[in-house]
Amino acid sequence: MRTRTIVSLAAAALLLTGQASAAPAGGAGSPGIGDPYYPTYGNGGYDVTHYDIRLKYQPATDRLEGTATLLATATQDLTRFDLDFALDVTGVLVDGRPAAFAATGEQELEVTPAAPIPQGRRTTVVVRYAGTPSAVARYGFTAWLRTPDGGVAAGEPEAAWWWFPSNDHPADKATFDVSVLVPDGTQAISNGDLVSQSSRAGWTRWNWRQDKPQATYLATLAVGRFDITRSTSPGGIPVLNAYSRDLGADDGAARASVERTGELADWLTGRLGPYPFGSVGGYVPNVRTTGYALETQTRVFYSPRMFSRGSNTSVVVHELAHQWFGDAVSVGRWSDIWLNEGFATYLQWLWSEHEDEGTVRELADWVYASHPADDPFWTVLPGDPGAQHQFDAAVYDRGALALHALRTEVGDDAFFRILRGWPAEHRYGNATVADFRRYAELVSGRPLGDLLRTWLFTPSKPALGAVAADPAVRPAAPREPRSWAAILGARQH
Ligand SMILES: [Zn+2]
Hints:
With 493 residues, the protein is α+β, with helices and mostly antiparallel strands. It has eleven helices and 22 strands. The protein has an eight-stranded mixed β-sheet with strand order 5-4-8-2-1-11-14-13, with no helix packed on it. A five-stranded mixed β-sheet has the order 16-17-18-20-19, with helices on one face. A four-stranded antiparallel β-sheet has the order 9-10-15-12, with no helix packed on it. It is globular, with a radius of gyration of 22 Å. The termini are close together. The site of zinc ion (ZN) has 6 residues, from helix 4 and helix 5.
């Protein structure tokens, strides 16, 4: 998403890298976690284990105020450390004592505790803050989505800065408690389980809990007038969905798609192994300025525009597949994005075949034939696309082709053992493309370096042989599979 934004981000990040190297060494945590795509994202020197976010939000004015309590462990001696945040901070406590703080750069909150924190110490950081998220721009954009009835935080890779201070990089996952006070008649939606809700003096508090590790970009908040539905999938997964009461003409198609979440999560469980979280669902807020969906953990964000041409179960399959690929197992660095998008797209192909809307083979043929050798599509490396191309079509479509090439190479039995075993192998953690290669080689017993280099790291159209077990039966000019438009609809994200 936001390709133009990412171009400017990459440029700004380069400038900031120069500044970062000038920061005092020894004792100060670095202002970036060390991701080459986004050098200022995340921070060094500590690891967050839990976020407790307690907010009050007024939909009429978009005023958000609150307190975030972070439990963190210092990974080095720290005289100072950064958080990533964009709203106005009014106070910071570190282990109960007031700390000095300063907003620097685009989204850095520099915190200097009263006393240095020794390596290994478990530390509690309390940040008090307030602001109008929709009025705050960083790197020229605002990730907070204002709606007529409230606001929404759902964006990749940035969203957290507009509603809670964090170590904003998927490499630092943590559990979350999110408690939001909103006027009676308004709902607050977040990740995980709805633990409780209570009303007093005209305000309702909504308490949500995500008890499995979650990347910061997968944390979501939506406040608005929602209709909440609850059920349990036939396989036993608790389902909670939410729909804006103002979806208008998109209401029916949105519900006809997202109400199938339980059924589709069960179908995915059959292919990928146990669903990794305690509940599942999606929400469709009344946002009109964006057209994407995002795999926010356990509670997928869908723009209503996803359903403006009718129901789309393919996008639901894509976002739910991310619960295994992206959410349970998160990228180690943003360059590992193929581990998210290539896999979620391949599950859409499998769903298409299951629904008799085009076989995996037909989809692979279609993608391969749709891009002639001189198409710039083939110059983007799914295995390391660069920040500017992180969400290019090639990451999704060539990424899925790469998986089909792997399947052709190792056979169905080993391939589906890999697909199922990978999320279990790294559940609730992080992994890289190199980790995947090692795992796939272990399970299949075959060297896969050449194959993965060809499909993920070579800037040209690979030879046909790697996708086709029998090129002789390949149609000369593949026809567009019936599912193709729906699959394209999930291109972001
Ligand atoms: Zn995706």
